[in-house]
Amino acid sequence: MAVISVATRYKTTVKEPGVPGVLKMNEERFVFVPNDPRSLMKLNVEFKNIKGHKFSKDGSKQALLNLTQDPEKGTGYIFEFDNFTDRNSCRDFVGRVLGKLQSVPGRPNEQSVPEKSAGAPLPEQLSAIEMERRIKLLREDSELLRLHKQFVLSGVLTESEFWATRKTLLGEDTTRMTKQRPGFKSAMLADVRPSADGRTNKVTFSLTPEIIQQIFAEKPAVHRAFLNLVPSKMSEKDFWTKYCRAEYLNRTRNAVVAAAEAAEDEELAVFLKHDDILANEARRKIRRVDPTLDMEADEGDDYIHLPDHGILRDAQKDTAETETEVSRRTLSQDLNRHAAVVLEGRALDVELGDTRTVAEALAWSKQELLSKEKSEENVNLEKQEKVARMTELEDLQAPRNPQYASLCIKDPREYFDSQQANALRALGGTEFGTNSLDLNLSKEEVYRHLKEQISEAKSRGLRNPIIRPDTALKVFSGLSQHLSSTRFQLGKNSQESALDRIPHRTKDDLMHHWTSIQELLRHFWSSYPITTAGLYNKVQRVKDAMGQIYQKLQEIKESSQSDFRHQVSLLVQPMLQALDAAFAHYDSEQQKRTAKSGAKPNGFVR
Amino acid sequence: MASAPSKLYQDDVSLVVALLDTNPFFWAAASLPFSEFLHHVIPFINSLLLLNQLNRVVLIATGTSSCGYIFDSGDGNASGNSNAVCSGIIKKLEDFVGKDSKIGKGSNGDGTRPAISSLLSGSLSLALCYIQRIFRSGTRHPQPRILCLQGSPDGPEQYVAVMNSIFSAQRLMIPIDSCIVGAQHSAFLQQASYITGGVYLKPQQLDGLFQFLAAVFATDLHSRNFLRLPKPAGVDFRASCFCHKKTIDMGYVCSVCLSIFCKYHKKCSTCGSEFNQAAPDSTIPDQKH
């Protein structure tokens, strides 16, 4: 940490002589210890509490430095130095420290903070996400990384200033992270198998949240029952117990027992009945199918199954007990239903924690689908029309004349040749050749003249030599001069730009300088008008950096080879001009400031 | 600019379609007489044919009311003799000029409003059609380019047609070279050469015209990759407005057909679409010519 210690005199107002002592400053605080150990004027102040610093002009009577706490009242710690060099070094030090401290938070609500505590600006709370985003951006963009290294790590700009102008880059990052949603497993988890314990008579079913979600998706009747019964009539555990009992009864071949129990316990009956929701859905689906097109959808689909068909689970044989209401599902039905659910995809993003929330979320999504379907009435109408059209026989119909819009070719004379006189006059159609007798010639004369020329050419034949040697020489020299002069001109016809012609290293240097200058100038111009000391310090730093780049540009311009010097100077010129404008502005502002401050009575300059 | 590789015949075989300006109104007052002009152009054509045995040259004359094919070196009759070529060209030119004068007499009876500009758009279209026919004749063709020997000023009423031909040439990758033998520059041909990648030249000395033609315009497309040819300093990109045919810098463009107007119109005169937006209150600044 940089430390500076100077012999000064501390005073509370300008007029008093002051207490001599030693002022030690480091980056966090300054300490003033008076020479006289008995004096009570010891100071130990953190820089966080100092808002700004004021100093008297170089060359005035006293070399004063005022570290202000409250900018309005002007109270602060005033130190008088023996000479201006000491004072200036202290002032610069304080300026740097204050600049660093005051620009670190970089928040607009910095103004409200001093009212609460005595001006303690908080360092910027960077969340982990923010840091990550910044690091990621820096990693991806090497240009940004270079700029960052050049300016922030060398202290010219602070982190917050650097990133303040790049908020859009940071903001966009979040939209790129789209999660890929995992779909349903293709294994039929809804088919819960118990594990039987051979010794005792217990049968264990295990249900994980994943399995529960699949059960809800595949068996809408169970889903509806869950929503209705839990938690109003029975607890979740009871519900699942009943469900598992129903499943167990289904598995066993004892249909009579199942029927008996279903008669007793109506909730259990729910699980053992046909799933009517599925039946409704299937019927609706069939109605929507275009009869002219889709031969697949027919009554053989789910739940409108034909009895005596299909393989039952566990290779049971259907013992034709159709009086009972116990539903038996064939293997193919189960598989089809599962496949349909898997293909529909997972519509939920809910975490698989709470069964109730999962159930509700599923119900919501199904409702949305239903409402969408209801609004498809016009689709139905269209389909009916299409059906009607497809079933008619083409040869038995009357011919239909296709309707077309007749071709309309506008008369080109209407818009091209109108006001040709104006055009001719405006263009100055008299710029012909050198002779003025053209307009007076009528057409016949002109054509006759041309024909005469042609016959003259015919009679003369080709000349020998075709062209005189001195004329040819003149032409050649003119052409070659023209070509060599256009070598350096960048007409719009050239396929390559000036940048491609200069050597690579120079080009890279120039591009890099250009981006650096852009960054610096952006910060420079945004800091005007200067209202706080922080901005003033920032401007100082930026100006110093710009001065360095200016030097480098001058060097490049002078050291480039003679072939490229012109182009390089053309490229460098706008950069130098921009920097010159910035410097000029800075100087004029400085002059204004010193001129203004001359009016102040006690010589304090801000 | 070389044409597509599939059409390459040999590297430096070229097909040159030269458009001769035979506007009598221009030639009557030109500093270079037409016979002198022919004395430069015809040897140039012969020299083109000499450069490569497979070269082909087509001459199209640009009149005031019509355009016509004058000479085609790829004809059945092998005219190896340069004199025969010369006399053939001249004879055809005579016929053409006679026809052109007759057609011209038919349309405008009076001679008070002479047609000052030649039908550049017509001859460009003829050239493009010929080249297209060559393209479709088989897979091996010479590389085509168009050379315009123009002297008459631009006719602003041909702006749209000329631009259409230029864009077609651009799509077919046919460079349009321009050699201006008149007094002033031609904006159309500047744009044509710029867009299609050709050479635009206005020779300072017209008595050395043959030398200019031989040095600059005889180069085939393959050699242009490594030869340095004269480039104009800038291109005059101004368009002419459709209502007054003035050349304008700033104007209004119809969003449907892209026709250009110098003043605000409620309805586009080319395509008939209406502009619903209210006219801006401030007038656009004066156009510079």
From TrEMBL, chain A:
Entry GO terms, CC: transcription factor TFIIH core complex
SMART domains reported for this sequence: BSD
Gene Ontology BP, a term: DNA-templated transcription
Location in or out of the cell: Nucleus
UniProt domain BSD: residue ranges: 130-174, 199-251
Superkingdom as given in the UniProt entry: Eukaryota
SUPFAM superfamilies: BSD domain-like (SSF140383), PH domain-like (SSF50729)
Pfam families hit by this protein: BSD (PF03909), PH_TFIIH (PF08567)
Keyword vocabulary terms for this entry: Nucleus, Repeat, Transcription, Transcription regulation
Gene3D superfamilies: 6.10.140.1200, BSD domain, Pleckstrin-homology domain (PH domain)/Phosphotyrosine-binding domain (PTB)
Main location: nucleus
Keyword Nucleus: yes
Family per record: Belongs to the TFB1 family.
Name listed for the protein in its UniProt record: BSD domain-containing protein
Organism of provenance: Rhynchospora pubera
UniProtKB/TrEMBL annotation, chain B:
GO annotation, cellular component aspect: transcription factor TFIIH core complex; transcription factor TFIIH holo complex
Keyword Transcription regulation among record annotations: yes
Gene3D superfamilies reported for this sequence: von Willebrand factor, type A domain (3.40.50.410)
A Pfam family it matches: Tfb4
Name of this chain's protein: General transcription and DNA repair factor IIH subunit TFB4
GO biological process, one term: nucleotide-excision repair
Subunit structure: Component of the 7-subunit TFIIH core complex composed of XPB, XPD, TFB1/GTF2H1, GTF2H2/P44, TFB4/GTF2H3, TFB2/GTF2H4 and TFB5/GTF2H5, which is active in NER. The core complex associates with the 3-subunit CDK-activating kinase (CAK) module composed of CYCH1/cyclin H1, CDKD and MAT1/At4g30820 to form the 10-subunit holoenzyme (holo-TFIIH) active in transcription.
